[in-house]
Amino acid sequence: MYFLTGWPRRLLCPLKSEEEPFHVQPSSQRFYFAVLSETQLSVWFSRPSVLIVSYIESAKASSQFGFYQQAEWKQDDSMIAVAAANGYILLFDVVGGGEDKYLYEPVYSKGSRGVKVTPGYKEEQCAPALSLEMKRPIDLEAPITSMQSLQEDLLVSTADGYLHVLHWDGVSNGRKAISLCSVPFSLDLQSARGGLCLDLKGVYIRDMTYCVTLDGFAVVLDDGRLGFITPLANRITADQLQGVWAADVTDGTCVAVNNKYRLVTFGCASGSVLVYSIDTTTGSMQLSHKLELTPKHYPDVCNKTGAVKLIRWSPDYSVAMVTWECGGLSLWSVFGAHLICTLGEDFAYRSDGTKKDPINISSMCWGAEGYHLWVITSREEAELVENMEEAPPQTQQAGILQFNFIKSALTVNPCTSNQEQVLLHGEDRLYLTCGDPTQLSSGSSESPHPHNLPHGGEGSPTHHPSPNSTLLGYKHWHVVQIHSTYLESNWPIRFAAIDTAGQCIAVAGRRGFAHYCMSTRKWKLFGNITQEQNMTVTGGLVWWNGFVVVACYNFIDRQEELRLYLRSSNLDNTFSSVTKLHSDTLLLNVFRDMIILFRADCSICLYSMERRHDGPNPSASVELLQEVSMSRYIPHPALVVSVTLTSVRTETGITLKAPQQTCMADSIILNLAGQLIMLQRDRSGPQLLEKLPFCPPVVLAQYVENVWTTCRSNRKKRHLLEALWLSCGEAGMKVWLPLFPRDHRKPHSFLSRRIMLPFHINIYPLAVLFEDALVLGASNETVVYDSLQGPREGRESLQGLFPYCTVERTSQIYLHHILRQLLVRNLGEQALLLAQSCAALPYFPHVMELMVHVVLEEEATSREPIPDPLLPTVAKFITEFPLFLQTIVHCARKTEFALWNYLFAAVGNPKDLFEECLMAQDLDTAASYLIILQNMEVPAVSRQHATLLFNTALEQGKWDLCRHMIRFLKAIGSGEMETPPPTPTTQEPSSTGGFEFFRNRSISLSPSADSIAAGKFNLQKTFSMPSGPSAKGSERWSKDSDCAENMYIDMMLRRHARHLLEHIRLKELGCFSAQLGFELIGWLCHERTRVARVDDFVMALKCLHKDFLWPFPVTPAGSISSPFKNGHRRTVLSQHLLKSQSADSLLNSDMDTAPPQAAARNSNHTWLDGLGALGPTEPTEMDTALSHGGPKTQEAFLSPLTNKTEECSIGSATDLTETSSMVDGDWTMVDENFSALSLTHSELEHISMELANKGPHKSQVQLRYLLHVFMEAGCLEWCVVIGLILREATVIKQVVNFLDSPEVPHETVQSVRSGLLGVDAWASTDCLGYKPFLNMIRPQLQKLIETSVEQIQPEAFLPGASNSKLAEPQPGGPSAEDNRGPALLGLALPLEPPGGLGTEDGGVPEEQEEQAVDEGVYDCTLS
Question: What's the pTM?
Answer without folding.
Answer: 0.75
